[in-house]
Write a structure and sequence with these properties.
The protein contains 18 helices and 13 strands. The protein is α+β, with helices and mostly antiparallel strands.
């Protein structure tokens, strides 16, 4: 990102415009904050920071209202499901291809796309980039609050860096198509940190922060990072203030613009779990069953009281002081604890509450919560019945893909697409692809390059083809008994590749067309050699027999007596 410092009189009006726009976004977001607080209370107590501009003190006690952790565990499982089906760390979950499919069969194009993809993954999973940890935090915000925010920037001349933001910092808006194009980030920094930030941005700080940096470096101040479409963008210019996305850093208390600049691509990738009509912020599965979660916690709270009362019941005594000096310690002798006729001076209250109906309600609420977080779905699809056939396994995978695609597929189109676009932009600007120029065939065709996803979720979607193949093969079993030639309709090489993709076989274990041609050639040569080895001795023996016969014939013929003509 490029920034320029602005100290002229025009910056005052710009600062007022940014403050006004932030107030509008803040007012719009306040409608959501009560709901977010309730969700955080029961599903993610550690993230309950929607109070007083996020000024909650560290070390505050959280989770005091949680008496059942079903929702917390269900959220963690859905977070793990997103991570494993969309962005698994042990595989390349996306690639690149030419927009013209005919070009993708050219080896030069394939190698170039694979090389660029490898560079992207190397930068993304660089330990200093911290992507693996931040993507988990993003999914946690997405599943808990329905909206997740990831900041993608660069350390100058070093590496890409990722940071998942707490939703409390983000204020967003959409364009006319429903795509998020505006984000105002409100955050705190100490005076010392603010000096470092201003130096990095090439900007200036107001006097109050500069003074605090000398006298009270740990004093905190509020800042706003405004990112929105640039109304003065100039495609024909490359200076920071002409870029498509405008970026402004503002010191909130003093209304002072620290720096103004721009981005070529949106630096914030924002995803939403689902959205309602005319809603900008997302809705999470926990919101759909929030009443069930609250009810479950209240019921469990009551059940705990009943259990405690049964384990340690209250005592009934005839009058005050009647049991003075008594001890409830095991084996302790209590003199005077019974009357002269052997009746105890105190009796315990035994709670005879029947909890069977209550426990059924608890189980029903837990099931509803697990259903909302797709826990039940994953359990059903993961369970493997004994003697399950290949077709049944693929059918189950197909069902899983159908059910998960509407929920998780949105993350690829809305969140991951923006993230990958930003990564490519940063790496291109850093010169990471200079030694890998685009192939001439792509340039001549004027074809663009697009992202193609190959995550486990996408492989689940492709099981339709594999299921169709297996069903067809099974259906032809009977006709094949009459005419085995019916199977000639299949191109078995392509069948094997489709089945391999559906079952998640890595591409590196599959032979290319050239490798297959070589293998066939070698197989044919081996076959010919084997035939020669079998036929050769027989031919040699035949030749030997003929030679011997000729030799015998040559020896015998002269001894035949000659008969003179009459």
């Amino acid at each position: 990102m490029a920034h320029a410092s602005f100290s002229d009189m025009g910056s005052k009006g710009l600062a007022e415009a940014i403050s006004l726009r932030f107030s509008e976004l803040d007012t719009s977001r306040k409608e959501w904050e009560p709901l977010w607080r309730k969700v955080a209370t029961y599903i993610d107590p550690a993230s309950d920071d929607f109070v007083s501009q996020g000024d909650r003190k560290g070390g505050d006690l959280k989770g005091e209202k949680v008496f059942d952790n079903t929702a917390i565990q269900a959220r963690d499982r859905l977070v793990a499901a997103h991570d494993s089906t969309l962005t698994p760390r042990n595989s390349k979950w996306h690639g690149l291809k030419a927009s013209d499919d005919a070009l993708n069969d050219i080896e030069e194009v394939k190698e170039w796309c694979e090389g660029i993809t490898s560079r992207i993954f190397a930068a993304r999973y660089n330990p200093r980039a911290n992507f693996a940890a931040q993507i988990g935090a993003y999914y946690q915000s997405l599943v808990t609050f329905g909206t997740g925010v990831m900041f993608i920037d660069e350390e100058m001349g070093s590496h890409i860096r990722y940071r998942a933001l707490h939703l409390n910092e983000a204020f967003i808006d959409e364009d006319h198509t429903g795509r998020v194009d505006t984000i105002y980030r409100r955050f705190q920094r100490t005076a010392r940190q603010a000096v470092m930030m201003a130096e990095r941005l090439g900007g200036t700080l107001p006097k109050d922060i500069m003074t605090a940096a000398k006298d009270a470096p740990d004093q905190k101040f509020w800042f706003i990072h405004a990112v929105e479409p640039n109304p003065e963008a100039r495609p024909d210019r490359i200076d920071p203030n002409s870029m498509p996305v405008r970026s402004i850093y503002l010191a909130k208390e003093s209304n002072h613009i620290i720096s103004q600049g721009g981005y070529r691509t949106l630096p914030y990738a924002i995803g939403r779990y689902s959205t309602g009509p005319r809603e900008i912020y997302g809705r999470s599965p926990g919101m759909a069953v929030l009443r069930d979660i609250q009810m479950l916690n209240e019921i469990n709270k009551t059940v705990i009281r009943v259990a405690q009362r049964q384990a340690d019941p209250p005592l009934f005594v005839p009058e005050e002081g009647a049991v003075k000096g008594w001890s409830m310690r095991p084996g302790k002798l209590n003199y005077g604890a019974i009357t002269g006729d052997g009746k105890p001076m105190a009796s315990a209250f035994h709670d005879q509450a029947d909890l069977s109906a209550t426990l059924e309600i608890i189980q029903d609420r837990r099931t509803a919560i697990n259903d909302a977080f797709l826990v039940t779905l994953f359990q059903i699809l993961v369970e493997k019945a004994p003697n399950m056939t290949a077709t049944e396994a693929l059918l189950r995978a197909q069902e899983k893909g159908v059910l998960l695609t509407p929920v998780m597929g949105r993350q690829q189109s809305e969140f991951l697409g923006t993230l990958i676009e930003r990564e490519i932009d940063l790496l291109t600007e850093a010169g990471q692809f200079e030694d890998m120029p685009m192939p001439e065939v792509l340039l001549e065709a004027g074809a663009s390059v697009e992202v193609v996803y190959d995550a486990p979720l996408n492989r689940l979607q492709r099981t339709d083809e594999a299921v169709g193949i297996l069903r067809t093969v099974e259906a032809l079993a009977e006709p094949a008994k009459i005419d085995p030639g019916v199977y000639d309709v299949f191109q078995w090489e392509k069948v094997a590749r489709v089945m391999g993709e559906a079952n998640g076989a890595p591409a590196k274990v599959m032979n290319t067309l050239e490798e297959m041609a070589m293998i066939r050639q070698q197989r044919e040569q081996s076959k010919q050699m084997e035939q020669a080895a079998v036929v050769g001795p027989a031919i040699g023996k035949t030749i030997k027999d003929i030679s011997q016969a000729q030799a015998v014939a040559g020896n015998v013929l002269p001894s035949i007596p000659q008969v003179a003509p009459a």
